[in-house]
Amino acid sequence: MNLALQKHRNSLEKLFIYFILLQPALDILAYFNIPISIILRVVAMGMGFIYILILPGDKERKVALIYIITLSLFMVIHFTNNLRVKEQFMMSLEITYIIKSVFFVELLIVYVFVIRSFSLKGNWQRIIQLYIFINMVSIAAVMLLAGLSDTAKRSYGALAKEGHSGWFFSGNELSVILGMGFSMMVLYMINQKSRLKKAQLLPFIGLVIWAMLTIGTKVSFGSIIIVLGISILVLIPKIVRNKKDWFNVITLSALLAATILITPSTSIGNNLSFSFGIDFTNQENRPSAMEEDHENEGQLQQNLLSGRSDFLNNIKKQYREAPLSQKLFGMGFGSNYVVSPKLIEMDFLDWYYNFGLIGFVLLMLPLIYIGYHILINIFNYHLKKINLVIVLVGLSVSLGLGSAMIAGHVLSSPASSIYLGIFIAYLFALAKQQRSSYIKK
């Protein structure tokens, strides 16, 4: 019986690893309104629960099962309460939002167990990095094809803003996915042993950089600058110490310089000029520094929040006026809206107002628990020496969580949340390692 369960566990683990490669295809199917993506992601949730159920009976497995069951019971209470209390109640939207939110939390827990087991294999990191690399290139290639065929979806409704997301539903979601995945691409290239292999990967990295600039969002543009900049800073001390990795530094520096040089002629260049008043070409007749600072201070805050502040104030008012049951169990999708439901698009705030105080705490528990153990293990085992792998995987996680805080479309979107869950689980497995011999020097 134990051998049979072990065989089933191994099969499920392989399926979840291969499931990573399916993500771009699922997102394209969703764009063309083919419901296979929804079905497969719901099936993945069911298989994830079965996987945890048949794991060996250690303490972490029991805690995970108790948590998932408790969260499921909460969601039933949350849904029932809003069905009873909420004046405007769209059942399909409420159920979809619940499933999307639970998807991230459950798949995060599942991938923590899957990657923990997968990390016992010698080539586990290379496989994960390669699969993410393939996904990012696939996304960029689809964007290129959609752009050449003039069938791409615009990133913005405003005509003054440029950019497209190819055959993917949301430019914001796509920018977060590419922002997190770009760090893995850089890591995969650095870990190649020969310069020829590194050089062969550069056209693909260049294609992804083009795609990130073409989306036209600040998140994807900022991710390129942050990832390349920090990678260079981490690698420079290694050159000073052992005269190695100079090829990596030169290559990454060239990519960073090229990105900055071509930015004015890209969609993000246009949008930065539109949003912040940056004139990349004409520096004449500009206002004085004091006038410019005064004019742009309020505009900067408004653009960073993308107009979310007004809706946030409205949600706060609804929350104050909501009954106690909604304060505890949440106001549901779009809160107590009058005309049409809308998210704040700042994921953690959406969690708080839509699922209430109890729901927010429940949804945050896995992030707090896993995050705490990641930090403790890093301080215990990896603080003495800068570890490039942990830095870059940590960057992927930080970019995902940071985007969730200010831009949304991460925790409530399976397309992007699954990547965040994978990267958190990857970082958890890395941090738990007490020796760094598995990491390329």
Automatic annotation (TrEMBL):
Keyword list, A-Z: Membrane, Transmembrane, Transmembrane helix
UniProt source species: Virgibacillus litoralis
InterPro entries documented for this protein: O-antigen_lig
Name of the protein: O-antigen ligase domain-containing protein
Superkingdom of this protein's organism: Bacteria
Membrane-spanning residues: 15-32, 38-57, 64-83, 95-115, 127-147, 167-187, 199-215, 221-240, 247-266, 351-374, 386-407, 413-431
